[in-house]
Amino acid sequence: MSINEIIVSIDNFVWGISLIILSLGSGLLFSITLKFPQIRLFKEMVRCSFKNKKGDAGLTPFQALSIAIGGRVGTGNITGTASAILFGGPGAVFWLCVMAIICSMSAYIESALAQVWKEKYNGEYAGGPSFYMNKGLKFKPAGVFYALLSVIFLIIFAGVQTNAFSSVAVASFNISPFIVAVIYTILLVLVIFGGAKAIANVADKVVPFMSISYVAVAILLILINITKIPAMFSLIIRSALSMDAVFGGIVGASISWGVRRGVFSNEAGLGTGAWVAGCADVSHPAKAGLSQAFSIFISLLICIATSLMILITDSYNVVGANGNYIVQNIVGDYDVFTTKSIDSVVSGFGSVFISLAMFLFTFTTIMAYSIYLNNINYFFFGGHTNKKNIKLISILINIAITILAFFGPLVKSSTIWSMASAMCGIISLINLISLILLYKPGIATLKDYERQLKMGIDPVFIPEECGIKDAELWNKIIEEDYSEELANYKKIFNKKFM
């Protein structure tokens, strides 16, 4: 058995029925308990995402959102979505959407908890899964183990991003992967060594542009093929529910690949988005949580755009469990599905547009990973070393990202994808179990937020009022940065504290 076959076997084992049930089950638990806030509070999610309060110690909510979208919207939304169709059929698109909508509440819980137990180091906020595993679960070994696996995953996934972009660029323009690696790495170095604020300044400009442009092209392509829309949606539903003669036999693969690539593309429940959520300067953890839940819908929108372009133009193939084609509409693997779909309307444009989109999507994803890793750096060393050493470690982390990004285009695509997918599953498992164990404080944040909204005030977070312990930093944050909001809180609820 080759190394590649071993890695693929591990990936398939990790993404077995247990993890799929855990991913969907936890999201459903949070959604039902909170009465589906992803629907009820959608307007509030948008409002929290675009508030632009400037804080010296943290990112603005919009910057945190942009970085999170940059992290969530990457190769998984184009190449990953195409691979879900290849291995799971059109029905995988349905399950990908179900997973994203339900599990957006997992993104809320992990992001709110990252805020609850965030810390302040060298004048900057830092928070994330390892922080809430340490202070919330009071089990630091889990936080350390998760952080170590996350370092490996994020650095490997930097290679996945450049590998995916290289595959498209090489196929489109017949250039050497080595040239792609060199140019990409040089551009990456110019940005990620500037620090979190520099990355945020790039992300909040590039992310809206790339997302709107991609969706606009998808809408145009769909309108050109408007007569095929009913048949396309019928195919997706029938395939997902085992009602289609061609795809009925792979409904299990449809669910598995839909959920797997759903997590892979939007990272809900994975915990990665929580690393940047913990950096945001907000008056209440629920604001960061709602904003991050909204980012799942943006990521889903890109996945839907990709799926519909591919399916409405029949630019896809599907393989069964034995590796043989069930459907073969085009020549080529999943990495050219989206390109072929656009080329079917405007010949030659697909190569240029998808190459540009893949570059921007993957580039902003790696930028986001740099911030995630910097927060992990704070978790390990923030309280034990000085600012100079922290900066040195951050530089070393960025060097590691740069090296993997360089070698990504030079390795076999299936190997690096399976390796990253397996790691994704493992850290999802650890994080989802932690979220379920921290179910009560996570739920309490949103209930407290809604309680204050109903009274007509801008909510502030008082940990003791939510029955949450070991979050003393918040008392200082509210007193110093949100004194006016605190005064309103005391007046409305007739509280005497702080």
UniProtKB/TrEMBL annotation:
Primary residence: membrane
Transmembrane segments: 12-34, 85-109, 143-161, 173-194, 206-226, 232-255, 293-312, 349-372, 392-410, 416-439
The organism's taxonomic lineage, starting at the top: Bacteria, Fusobacteriati, Fusobacteriota, Fusobacteriia, Fusobacteriales
A Pfam entry, by short name: Na_Ala_symp
Membrane topology according to the record: Multi-pass membrane protein
PANTHER family: AGSS FAMILY TRANSPORTER, SODIUM-ALANINE, SODIUM_PROTON-DEPENDENT ALANINE CARRIER PROTEIN YRBD-RELATED
Family from the record: Belongs to the alanine or glycine:cation symporter (AGCS) (TC 2.A.25) family.
GO cellular component annotations of the record: plasma membrane
InterPro entries: Na/Ala_symport
NCBIfam families: agcS
GO molecular function, one term: amino acid:sodium symporter activity
Keyword set, alphabetical order: Cell membrane, Membrane, Symport, Transmembrane, Transmembrane helix, Transport
Localization in the cell: Cell membrane
Protein name stated in the entry: Amino acid carrier protein
